[in-house]
Amino acid sequence: MGAExxxxxxxxxxxxxxxxxxxxxVSIGFDGIPVLEDISxxxxxxxxxxxxxxxxxxxxxxxxxxxxxxxxxTGYIYLFGQEITELAEDELLxxxxxxxxxxxxxxxxxxxxxxxxxGYQLMERGLPADEIDRRVxxxxxxxxxxxTYEMLPASLSGGMRxxxxxxxxxxxxxxxxxxxxxxxxxxxxxxxxxxxxxIKERDLYGTPALLVTHRLQDAxxxxxxxxxxxxxxxxxLPKGQTNSNTSFLVLxxxxxxxxxxxxxLVKSDDPFLKKFLA
Amino acid sequence: MPFAxxxxxxxxxxxxxxxxxxxxxxxxxxxxxxxxxxxxxxxITQADLIGVGSLPIVVLTGFFTGGVLALQSAASLAQxxxxxxxxxxxxxxxxxxxxPVLTGLMVSGRNASGMASELGSMIVTEQIDAMRxxxxxxxxxxxxxxxxxxxxxxxxxxIVSDSVGTAGGxxxxxxxxKQNSTQYFDSAYQALVYSDxxxxxxxxxxxxFIIATVGCYFGMKTTGxxxxxxxxxxxxxxxxxxxxxxxxxxxxxxxxxxxSGF
Lengths: 278, 262
Description:
By secondary structure, chain A is α/β, with parallel strands linked by helices. In chain A, 39% of the residues lie in helices and 25% in strands. The A-B interface holds A 64, 67, 69, 89-90, 93-94, 96-97, 99, 101, 103-105, 107-110, 120-121, 124, 168, 178 and B 37, 125-127, 129-137.
């Protein structure tokens, strides 16, 4: 009962709080070809938004727009309440230190060890080496890869690289995490491990997140599972229940065609959504 | 015919855009020298990779070029009874022209390609985006240290090439042409004036800047996956080599004019 009240309180607080990311009528194209048109949505604190859509629809582009790695042709993007479309790169770099991003293939620096990759942001801030070591160990423990501390990215498997990338993204306690297809190209077992880590991060730290995927299974796992602290495992929610902080966005043909809960997504009459979910 | 003009028009626009981008890119690389943070450890690492790493090829090139100059000039000079001037010919040619240009071309072949392929690979594997996402400016972290290190190290490598080239000429003059070593070094030393040294040591500063900025520019503008990395590498070497030779002509002309009164 206490947990339900807590959840409800979080939901109410969430609705009142200012979103960490806001897209207002954002459009972008490359070489005259529109990729995203008139995209509007927001990500509230503690909210996880899962961005679905077929491959090549512009999901990764949208994620890069959210953190200012790309600039839109039209529209406005707000990150932590600051309008970023016209922001100077120096100011954007400062703002980005408050976010964590997991890239499609991990994007680990291949000439640095796992320790230096994970602790990169801390090293850039000039923290003492023992403080960095402690926090790197902590982050690697979270993704269960402490033994890779001294290894180079080239000697890690694809799944391990994604987990190290997650450790790098969360080490500085970001206020927003962006996941770009974190399970793309991985086998089902490894994908499940990654999904569990994302759920664990969501339920333990409540960091708002924007997650891009084209795998429906990942999306539904996020919505229908929770992290159980007592058993340190991801467990399914009771039948019929879904995580109230997890909602969906669907992109199709340059447009955002759905923005809502998993229940609304499943019940949608949109022909594309029906086909996509089938 | 209209198609040919259309293509010419597109090509010209593309060239102008590339020149504009390169100018802005180079300016940013220089301007970052005055902005924090400064990546001193990266500057030292790059200086080691570019300078110490290029030392063997610069020594070999310099030595044999000096040797060939002595070999060719000794035969020609002997026809006029001026074989004693071999040292003068070698030192002037090496210090004013050949050491800066050859060292520049060698370092360009080795390092402009290395920079383009390294940064290009980082672009296609999203490592540059990851760096930006982590709050680091890749221009400050990757480009500026390479530019500064290349300028400093090419200057020093040219001095090495000057010395080794003169020594190579001496080796040929003494052991093959059977000249007197004191005469060779005396003529080599007497021939040199302040403007020769100034010319020879000003050029590598420009060449180093060209090598690093061109290499980094093509690397950072890489598109099209691994094939794009290969293309960027080739373009970096070709463009930097041509620019070195072109700027050598301009610099020689300018410095002959500047030092005409000396």
